[in-house]
Amino acid sequence: MRVQSVNLNLIPTGVMPIVHLSQYDRGADGALLFNIFNGPAPFNLTGCTATINGTKPDGNVYTYPCTVHSNFLTSAVYDQMTTVQGTHEAEIRISDGDSVV
Questions:
Q1: Do 63 and 93 meet the contact criterion of CB atoms below 8 Å apart?
Q2: What burial letters (b/e) apply to 36-61, b meaning 16+ CB within 10 Å?
Q3: What is the pLDDT of residues 14-51, one digit of tens each?
Q4: E strand map for the chain
Q5: Which of 35, 42, 68, 77 is the most exposed place for a label (fewest CB within 10 A)?
Q6: pLDDT score of 11 more than 90
Q7: Nearest alpha-carbon partner for 21 in 34, 30, 13
Q8: Any idea what DSSP says for residue 28?
Q9: Distance between CA atoms of residues 68 and 48, nearest Å
Q10: Residue 96: CA atoms inside 13 Å, Cβ hemisphere, count?
Q11: Quick check: helix, strand or coil at residue 44?
Q12: For the whole model, what pTM was predicted?
């Protein structure tokens, strides 16, 4: 299984990270690992929940849960993430109770 690791910072840098997936990649083909930082320090995700939300080029959207670890998130590559060819825009949404981190 191929794992792609991406560093994400809660402080906006203006640089959008890019994850490369092929059309029809799915679960056994790979996983996504997101290292979460608050500036230079790892961000403590204890008590948080997270989802990956994306929009495919055909306009359809997807939302899948991420698994939360101490300072990183993991997500499988779900079928609906890769069924449509082209560039997808997606975001990781981290919540701590009712507030979005």
A1: no
A2: beeeeeebebeebebbbebebeeeee
A3: 888 888 888 888 776 679 999 999 999 999 999 999 99
A4: 2-9, 30-38, 41-42, 49-55, 61-68, 72-76, 89-96, 99-100
A5: 42
A6: yes
A7: 30
A8: G
A9: 7
A10: 6
A11: coil
A12: 0.88
Nearest Cα residue to 94 out of 45, 61, 55, 54: 45
- By residue count, the chain amounts to 101
In angstroms, the CA 50 to CA 52 distance is 7
Start-to-end Cα distance in the chain:
30
Cβ-proximal residues to 35 (8 Å cutoff; 6+ apart), any chain: 5, 6, 7, 8, 42, 71, 72
CA separation for the pair 22, 11 (Å, rounded): 29
HSE-CB of 5 using CA atoms within 13 angstroms: 4
For residue 13, give the 3-state DSSP assignment. Answer: coil
pLDDT for residue 30:
75
